[in-house]
């Protein structure tokens, strides 16, 4: 069939409520615009884990991989599960298990008001970050020696493969080429991490030659963090390892109005037929849960990224435009200068989208 | 004798010229204020390396360690030495070789004009970062396997010891206690780096108990980078590993007016008798070299940190105050909104300091 099945995992903290709003938006697309979407809610997260010890069962993993075009994830992390085991099993279970090597995170400001930099506005912040999503320190390699003694040594290894580095660098250049962006910058720390990041430098240098029409350079990640604040306009596409991508996109969120505005896609960029994972960049923010105050816009913008992935890119642009209008009219939550609750802010966007369809 | 010997290494790029200005300021202190300083210039850096292959000779290392109270370093790094071997030998030779485990980097804005955040001024940016300086990914552990083949694997290890983590965390708390700062925040990535950063969390939790009067918390480093832009006033003292300290202090420099304003000290915090290393946070910036445009203020503020270390803390405050006045009167270089060259900006500060002495 041509129908697209979407697995929905609300997760923990504010996850379920922003994901509920995202689901309602998807329902508008299904019911009003007639998009062939099947929504499948999965009961996974801290509650489920505490109830019956289940994190991300193998049969669910297989079913998602076989049947779904996309997964929409809210957020994971709950103070009742200190080590975040369930969160890691589910999140890394999909990122690693489905080999979703490109974590694509747009750093795009939708309103002048949300840009915290003097003399800068929305037009100055429009970057897409390609974060490597399957390697680096996230693989968990390492250990602790003589734990708990004065002689303890603890190591995490930053693992990088030729294959892993090449495919994310290539994904960044391919994206730039496809979308008409003219500049790709890689961030590394090759002046200190001589083994791992010499590989990044070398691969970057090889791959960039295949894209002579695209301006490319590398920066040390420390310099990048400084320059992106001093002048974000110089960056269009960024590519970097897992850890640096994590750091730089949170920093980027500060330029967009906070984590309440930051969307992301986790994709296997070279095989668009594969199931992909969509999640707002924010976490579960337990103190905000259940209070109808969390910003739902990151989740709605994430729906936009998903619709592009599924073949309806105009809808991503529409959602962005409507969210920008909501911000302009202060029809938004307090974190972005409005007075509405989660539900009312999401409803404003949903109704405006529905009217346009 | 009570005289303090100071080794001076200009280094590469803009290093020699800003260091020359720093030396002239030290000479004012020696000649006009009568401080017992002996200045010892060392010919080390790319030129020397290219001339006779010398990076950081053992006998110099020993002499510095035996005879000097402090080292003033300009900057290292030269495009003619691609791998930066000489830079690493000298810089890490001192940081590691002298066991200078605390890289102390104030993130302090000296003028409202230099703070790039809407609605924020100088009073909002006053943080001191304690960066671990002898471990982490900087130890160089790791390697490359099947280099140059499609199967290549490259690893850098993030090495952390109980001793290393404890002493830097303790240094941060001791500093807070000594200077009356009320809040210490540790940044880690324990949700992804479970071995290395579980140690950081555990040690932080132990050490903080010894300082009940100080408010303490930890943040994931990604969250820290976001929050320091959204509201820098919530931070007073930060402590983190080598790599994160590198990244966060460059980001911090963006809040101070750029790298031209950022000073640093590398000290063995628990033994103040030991030689310490003082360097501006900026690099050698080869394109700016020899043009009389580099900002000398980071180097002058670094002299201030050195004078505190040597026992004259009032002079650090004086230098800060005079540099702030220079910024206010636009007696500064273009990067911070002035029109003066390196020499003239430094002379303005030096003459004002001399007049006050
Ligand atoms: C929850 C955490 C492990 C995760 C990460 O570091 O990838 C989060 O910060 C993110 O950016 O998605
Ligand atoms: C030159 C480089 C190796 C160095 C570092 O990463 O420590 C620099 O960025 C610094 O911050 O002093």
Characterise this structure:
Two copies of one chain form a homodimer. Chain A contains eleven helices and twelve strands. Chain A has 357 residues and is of the alpha/beta class. Chain A has two domains: 200 residues, Isopropylmalate Dehydrogenase; 141 residues, Isopropylmalate Dehydrogenase. The longest helix of chain A has 18 residues. In chain A, strands 2-1-3-12-11-4-5-10-8-9 form a ten-stranded mixed beta sheet, sandwiched between helices. Chain A has a two-stranded antiparallel sheet with strand order 6-7. In chain A, helix 5 packs parallel to helix 6 and helix 10 packs across helix 11. At the A-B interface, strand 6, strand 7, helix 6, helix 7 and helix 8 of A face strand 6, strand 7, helix 6, helix 7 and helix 8 of B. Strand 7 of chain A pairs antiparallel with strand 7 of chain B, so a sheet runs across the interface. One 3-isopropylmalic acid binds next to loops of chain B. One 3-isopropylmalic acid sits at the interface of chains A and B.
